[in-house]
């Protein structure tokens, strides 16, 4: 196992090992860069994972304290768990279910397309779809995305059969079992799915793409990856010229270490990435590192989400097979006549009884809950994921009084739905109900959003330094050798699940870093 | 907690999560989970002891003597109290994580050690036609 010296100032430090950080690390290692990945969580592997929802949650989830404020339901129902993301090697790529839609061209020009919406802080991305397309291709090939580049589709599971038949009956045309980054056939050294489910719980089989099973082992094979689990970064350091010089982190023994670096890349997921920049305030950067715009932590997005369940008089057994393996894309179109801007996808989802009972109607008990749970066997489920509006006041800040185990102030996540989000959710719930009613549902249940898995926008890309935190390559406007490499760079959220775009941007960023910084020197 | 309090707790759980198909065992184990949580949390312990005692004062007879409907009404009156909220928070996790409950609901639990469902019915739904799996739209 490769180890670089703490004082080796030639290394690139990557904070976080998820979809962004893990991919970036592999791409940098392949280009000859000495790369140190600091991951706050432990190094779990397939053998460690549990086929059990609560055990897996306790093992994988980021359960360090956070606080939540605002009018969103999460602040009431899950006040200490605003986000449901992973603290382990592989990050939330070990939890994702694999849905891989691309952004559409208009979604990268949201401000120009949707106009000036009251309360929304919309901005066009400083990148166009045609610039991104080659990187989407490379990301899809890397991840083995089904339905793309010759990869076969996943077969229809029980949940999909209900979903797709309903879709057909209501007149939808753009439905399929993918694209998903899960192997229907063996690919890239990883096996085909055995339809074992538990994708959210790590995927013991390794047929789902994650940085744990795909990017990090390849990076390791180059001999240039120094992966340090249980290493929690507390501060990014800089010199008198304003360049990043390394990081301070708490290692697994609880000792504070300094790792010097030529380049620092932050990929801790939007909440932690913003928190780290805010924690890295100094005399030169009193409002937080890379925050001269005041935009660090702002424009936090979490997708407009909901779940719709259909219950039938015959068994579904939605839990058998891939957790998510179906997409209806018809509502992702550009069509502002529906009473909102932006679009949404419907995607199959399955939960076990443990999570189903806990999340189906948060805070509910008595017959209103038990009647729903009694129908578990005959239940089909879909998740709604749509574009939400960036708002300056939706924001990650440092929590005043609450600190983590290291004494570091935790993140507070403030969120209010925009009127557009509310209108979209309501439309999506109606359409979801129509899909299930079309195939004879005896009951339809609408579930409000879960703690956020898609955390976006807190360090957004902008052409002008005053409008955002990073440039079109994810480089901080204020700090030339500091990069942000996760979903926090999203200027707007689009409807698509974010991982494919995070991976595409990480490949593109690695290429840029390689042209800007020569191997072994800086 | 006394045996009597334990019985009251079980009856509270049956009234809060009334499933006709559930046997007594899962409710008893869930009461055990609440008791275990209380043993590790003095605040919960205090809420539990006082709350179970109060529960018996809500009507002329003890809570466990009430019919199911009345027990449900009594609990509704306690909605939002720290006692009931704390008990239900622990109970909803424990009850629906009980493997006997999973059996009753038709859930099969862990699958990987059985080879997944690829040969065990992941696509055995037969009351709808087999749908197409590829979009009729061109990919993005």
Kindly describe this structure:
The complex is a heterodimer of chains A (522) and B (140). Helices cover 25% and strands 16% of the residues of chain A. Chain A is built from 12 helices and 17 strands. Chain A has helices spanning 19-30, 53-60, 73-77, 110-114, 129-143, 158-170, 211-221, 269-279, 353-359, 367-374, 419-437, 499-516, and strands at 12-15, 35-38, 67-69, 175-176, 225-228, 232-238, 244-250, 256-260, 263-266, 304-311, 327-328, 344-348, 379-386, 395-403, 409-414, 443-447, 482-484. A 6-stranded antiparallel sheet of chain A has the order 4-11-12-13-10-16, with helices on one face. A 5-stranded parallel sheet of chain A has the order 5-2-1-9-17. In chain A, strands 3-15-14 form a 3-stranded mixed sheet. In chain A, helix 1 (19-30) runs parallel beside helix 12 and helix 6 packs across helix 11 (419-437). Chain A starts with 11 loop residues before the first strand and ends in a 6-residue tail after the last helix. Chain B is an all-alpha fold. The termini of chain B are far apart. Chain B has helices at residues 3-16, 24-39, 42-55, 68-77, 82-95, 99-105. Chain B is elongated. At the A-B interface, helix 6, strand 4, helix 9 and helix 10 of A face helix 4, helix 5 and helix 6 of B.
Give structural attributes.
A: 522 residues, alpha/beta, 16% strand, B: 140 residues, mainly alpha, 6 helices
Globally, the shape of chain B reads elongated
Question: What kind of sheet is the major sheet of chain A?
Answer: 6 strands, antiparallel
- Look at the structure and give the mean pLDDT of chain B: 95
Query: How many strands appear in the DSSP assignment of chain A?
Result: 17
Task: Provide the gyration radius of chain B in Å.
Answer: 21 Å
Q: Strand-residue fraction of chain B?
A: under 5%
**Total number of helical segments of chain A?**
12
Strand order of the largest sheet of chain A: 4-11-12-13-10-16
Mean pLDDT of chain A: 97
């Amino acid at each position: 196992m490769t180890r670089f010296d703490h004082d080796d100032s030639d290394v690139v430090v990557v904070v976080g090992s998820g979809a962004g950080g893990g991919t970036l690390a592999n791409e940098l290692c392949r280009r000859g860069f000495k790369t140190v990945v600091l991951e706050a969580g432990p190094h779990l592997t397939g053998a460690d994972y549990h086929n059990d929802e609560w055990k897996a949650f306790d093992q994988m989830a980021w359960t360090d304290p956070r606080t939540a404020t605002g009018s969103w339901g999460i602040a009431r129902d899950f006040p200490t768990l605003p986000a449901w993301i992973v603290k382990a090697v592989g990050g939330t790529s070990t939890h994702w279910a694999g849905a891989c839609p691309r952004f559409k061209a208009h979604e990268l020009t949201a401000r120009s397309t949707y106009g000036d919406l009251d309360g929304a802080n919309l901005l066009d991305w400083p990148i166009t779809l045609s610039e991104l397309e080659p990187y989407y291709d490379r990301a899809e090939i890397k991840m083995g995305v089904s339905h793309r580049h010759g990869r076969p589709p996943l077969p229809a599971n029980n949940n999909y059969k209900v979903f797709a038949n309903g879709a057909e009956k209501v007149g939808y045309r753009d439905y399929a079992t993918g694209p998903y980054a899960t192997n229907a056939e063996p690919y890239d050294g990883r096996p085909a799915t055995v339809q074992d489910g538990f994708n959210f719980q790590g995927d013991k089989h390794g047929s789902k793409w994650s940085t744990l099973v795909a990017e990090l082992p390849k990076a390791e094979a180059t001999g240039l990856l120094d992966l340090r689990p249980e290493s929690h970064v507390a501060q990014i350091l800089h010199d008198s010229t304003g360049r990043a010089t390394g990081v301070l982190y708490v290692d697994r023994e609880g000792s504070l270490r300094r790792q010097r670096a030529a380049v620092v890349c932050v990929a801790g997921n939007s909440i932690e990435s913003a928190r780290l920049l805010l924690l890295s305030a100094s005399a030169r950067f009193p409002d937080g590192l890379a925050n001269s715009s005041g935009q660090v932590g702002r424009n936090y997005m979490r997708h407009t989400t909901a779940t719709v369940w259909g219950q039938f008089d015959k068994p579904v057994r939605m839990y058998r097979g891939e957790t998510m393996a179906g997409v209806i894309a018809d509502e992702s179109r550009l069509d502002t006549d529906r009473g909102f801007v932006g679009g949404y996808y419907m995607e199959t989802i399955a939960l076990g009884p443990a999570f189903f009972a806990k999340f189906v109607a948060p805070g509910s008990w008595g017959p209103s809950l038990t009647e729903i749970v009694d129908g578990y066997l005959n239940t089909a489920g879909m998740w709604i994921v749509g574009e939400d509006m960036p708002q300056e006041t939706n924001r990650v800040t440092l929590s005043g009084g609450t600190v983590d185990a290291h004494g570091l102030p935790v993140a507070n996540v403030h969120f209010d739905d925009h009127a557009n989000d509310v209108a979209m959710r309501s439309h999506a719930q109606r359409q979801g109900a129509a899909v299930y009613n079309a195939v004879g549902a005896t009951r339809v249940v609408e579930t409000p959003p879960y703690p956020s898995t898609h955390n976006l926008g807190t360090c957004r890309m902008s052409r002008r330094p005053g409008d955002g935190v990073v440039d079109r390559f994810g480089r901080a406007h204020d700090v030339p050798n500091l990069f942000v490499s996760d979903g926090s760079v999203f200027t707007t959220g689009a409807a698509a699940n974010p991982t494919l775009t995070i991976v595409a941007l990480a490949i593109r960023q690695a290429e840029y870093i390689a042209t800007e910084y020569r191997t072994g020197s800086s | 907690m006394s045996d009597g309090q334990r019985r009251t707790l079980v009856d509270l759980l049956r009234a809060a999560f009334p499933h006709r198909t559930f046997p007594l065992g899962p409710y008893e184990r869930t009461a055990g989970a609440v008791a275990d949580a209380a043993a590790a949390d003095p605040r919960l312990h205090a809420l539990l002891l006082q709350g179970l005692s109060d529960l018996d004062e809500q009507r002329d007879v003890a809570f466990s003597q009430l019919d199911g409907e009345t027990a449900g009404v009594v609990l509704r009156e306690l909605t939002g109290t720290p006692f009931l909220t704390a008990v239900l928070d622990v109970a909803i996790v424990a009850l629906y994580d009980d493997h006997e409950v999973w059996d009753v609901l038709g859930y099969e639990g862990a699958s990987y050690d059985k080879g997944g469902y690829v040969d065990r019915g992941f696509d055995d739904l037969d009351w709808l036609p087999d749908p197409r799996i590829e979009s009729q739209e061109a990919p993005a």
